[in-house]
Each structure stands twice: as C-alpha cells, then as structure tokens.
Amino acid sequence: VQSATMCYKLCLLLLAVIRLVEPLPVEIIEKADNITITSAYCEHPFETVNNGCYFFSQSSDLKLNFEDALQYCELLSHGNSIYEVSLAMLDYGREEDQAFLDAVAAKSKNNDTFWVGGKTEDGKLWTWIDGREIYLHAPFWDIHEPNDINNKCLAAHSVPVLEQPHSRSYVYDHECSDALGIVCQTGSIKCPPDFIKIGNHCYLQSWTIDAPDLHWQESRDYCQSLEVHDGFHGDLMVLGLQDQDDYHILNNIVEGSPHYDIWIGAHQRDTQGSACSYQWVDGRELPIESIYWEDSQPLCGTDDSVCIYYHPSIYTRAYLFDTSGKYGARPFVCQMLEGN
C-alpha cells in the first residue's frame, strides 16, 4: 500500500511537470491522502448536499490558485474510489444548484471565496471544466458579472442579504493566480480499462481491443464476463436510459467500426401472443414505433436480434435494424450498467 501511495504521489508530481505548472506542495498532497470517498454515501470530510457529495476547504492553510485547485480535486479521486472528483460545477437552475450555493454561504466564514470549476479563454465564452457552456444569463451569476475580461476563472462568494439574517452565494469572475478556498464534488463514474466515456456512461467497442466478431448471444456472454466496478455489471449496450443522450451515443459509438452493423443489447421478446415485440437486455420495452428504427424496420419474423446499422454513403445517421442473431458474426458494444 505504501509503495502504491508513493507511486501515486510521483505520478501527480509528473503530471504537474507535464502541465508546465508548479507541483502541489507535499503537505497538500498528504492532506488529500487522508480523504476517502465511497459510492454509498458521503464520507467525511465530504458532505451531503441534496444528492451530491462536496468537500469544502475551510482552513486558512488550504487556499490554492485555480490550477492547483484543479489538481487537488483530482487527487481526491485516488485509491479505490470509482468516482471522478473535480472542482464543483453547476447546472442551469436546478434545485441542487441552489442547495449547493446555500451550502457555500453556510460554509463561508469571514466572507471566504471558493474556486468552482469554470473558466474562460477569451473573456467572452465561459465553460465548465467538463466542456459545457456557462450561460451569461444564468441566475447564479452575481449582478453585473462577469465584468472583467482579465479575470479568467470562476469563484463563488457569499454576500449578505439586505435586512435578512442569512447570506446568499453567487459566482463571479476572478484572477486565476489568487489563492482561494476550494469546493470539490464527486462526479460521474470512472470507466474500467478499455472502456470509453460517452456522456455519463462507459462503453467498450469490441474492435478497439481486437475482440473477434461474434454472434449476438456470444457477444452478450462476452460483455457479461467483463470485470467492472462493484455494484455494476457488463452487458450489451442499451438506449433509453434517463441520463443518456441516445442520438449522441448512436452516432459516436459506431466511430472506427470496421463494419456497418454492430450488435447491441436488444432482442425480440419471448412471447406467444406477439411476433413483433422487442425489449432491451435490462427488461425495458423497445417500442416498434421508436424513432431510432430505420424506416423499414423492424421486420420481425425470424429476425430476433437488434444491431446498429450505419452506412455513410446511404444514411446520415445510425439506425436500429433487426436481424437474426444466429447467423453472421459482427462487432459489438458492451456497456457498464448499474446493478450486479
């Protein structure tokens, strides 16, 4: 364990050199080594704010510039944690955002200011560190903010509410080199080796690891045999999950495939009353009216399995086709899904 910890610290220092920024002080790294995260709840010193886990730096000796704050939050994601950690980011007016800002106000002592995960390159377009745009009319900006094109990083600051006993926090632009407090948050799941992240989910494309083309059931067996994080399992990929952008996934998952058709996790239902009823491998219905079927699909009958079909000279986007899973080996896409 000690050797693994030492290796991690050396990797962090190397990362800092590669980024051409000063490495974090050793005492800061050691502070982060004492912080752990679990998937079931927010473990000290992370705190629960609505459905999220946040770390608020409150000590005067833990104030860093923006780049060091980014590294510090990344460092909290070490060890066996399966969740990424980053500087805190907001959405666009959800209740969770207000709860987070209220928590910043409650944690602010002596008008402390905290880094959050937003910045700009040109002083005009602001983005979160995950690439999403920060809209200038979003309600979490302080009045008249942003107002200085030389301030390229985003901070949260608590201000008193007139004639009220409480404070309220807003975000505003700030000089990146200043030493401020930090708010880190746990984010999306980390992907196991060979998986790629698309949106909030992890996928494995068989052709990227030189896996052989297989029939549909063989493909599913392969996906189910993969080692993934505890509390998850592997299976052929599905669409229609609440936090998935299906169109984005369909048109990105086929990238680099040596074939036009790729097995995914859908098949005909085993029913006696209907010969044309499909479902995903997690049990949800795949309606035959879904907009993701190609116009002539599904054909039903003996075509019992579903693939993604994309031919750039024929179609402008990827579609679902049904075909026989017993004939014709194809590439396939696995997905890490919740549950054992």
TrEMBL record:
Keywords: Signal. Residues 49-185, 198-335 form the C-type lectin domain. Gene3D superfamilies: Mannose-Binding Protein A, subunit A. It holds the Pfam family Lectin_C. It comes from the Eukaryota. Residues 1-23 form the signal peptide. InterPro entries: C-type_lectin-like, C-type_lectin-like/link_sf, C-type_lectin/snaclec_domain, CTDL_fold. This is C-type lectin domain-containing protein. The lineage of its organism: Eukaryota, Metazoa, Ecdysozoa, Arthropoda, Crustacea.
